[in-house]
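Standup notes
- HV: blocked on the assembly model, inputs below
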Amino acid sequence: MLQSWRWFGPNDPVSLREIRQAGVTDVVSSLHHLACGDDWPEQEISARVRTIAWDEEREQPSGLRWGMVESLPVHEDIKTRSGNYQHYIDVYRNNVRKLGAQGVRAICYNFMPVLDWARTDLYITQADGSTISGCNIDAFVAFDLFELRRPDAEKDYAPWAIASAQQFYDGLTEQARAQLRSCILLGLPGTVENLDPPTFLRLLQRYRHIDAEQLRSNLYDFLNAIMPDCEAAGVRMCIHPDDPSYPVFGIPRILSRAEDVQRLFQAVPSPNSGLTLCTGSFGSCIHNDPAQMFEQFAERVYFVHFRNVTHVPGKEGSFYESNHLFGSVDMPRAMKALITEEERRKAAGVLEWGIPVRPDHGKLMDGDKDSGAYPGYSRTGRMIGLAELRGLEVGLRHAMGLDLG
Ligand code: DNO
């Protein structure tokens, strides 16, 4: 695996030097200060390439490179195929070409309406005092019904689910309700903005007449329009799964299950359209086996997010993010799928770059609590995750009789 790390740019509390010292070679970054749909100026791209690759202080190459963009967000006009979508597709195509010309090899994006990843709690305290994030299905439903009051929302839920959400909501203090609101509507890392309930509702309304089939076809049209540029620029698109991988707030979901991935690859056969295999996002749906999905789609996996989730027994949809190696995702099997695919590409002579893997999310430990780290994007927690994953890789490679990578 290529050890990679998400870096949010010069204001990130974790420095590039620390990232390098943790063993990382591949930085995953984006021009976060630009708005969704903006043209990315060439000078800004080259400045970021240089910031990552050149150690100013020591005046020498840093040992890091920027080959992976996460994310180049897709404008809502493209997802809804309305408004100025043609303009935004042209901008996207241009950005792909510019990024490819400056050495970017792959782009991670998603096609989730309105929200990027969503959680109902970002600071769940564990027994050891560290915090992690998670989803409580009752909280999602309660927010939808009693806070947002989305029209017709009750039609999306079974009566027992509504009753359970009601009971949950009744037990919340006003302060806990406010916390839930800000957690769901907060711009999480990588997302575009903080939303307020009326704006969120208005944005959701744009999808009132867009069902999953329509959204799928909008995704395929978008990808087919940009594929020639991706191919010419040598850039691979890696779609990120829906997170969580089940419906929330009536939003259509089109990248949650294995059949969604299969349909995507049938509709857009270009090898430049691939997958970000995020074990945590796929793992949030109890019907998915992310390790098996890795094996199934290995040839089209160009980027990996390794993290684990633990399902709450008897509460489908409720989970918390757990230690990278232990939880509902069979991480040794997922790592084995990665190694097997890397070896296959090597033997076939098609491993031009390697498969970047980032330790996705990590617990927030005491020393990091005041560092300004984004939820999930802790320094120490992610470094522990990376170290554990590296250990797992070396152990498996040794057991498989392979070189240690
Ligand atoms: C969350 C991330 C996502 C991801 C986007 C990709 O931690 O995995 O925000 O970057 O969905 O577009």
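- HV (later): unblocked. The mean pLDDT is 95. The CA atoms of residues 308 and 326 lie 7 Å apart.
- Next: hand off to the docking folks.
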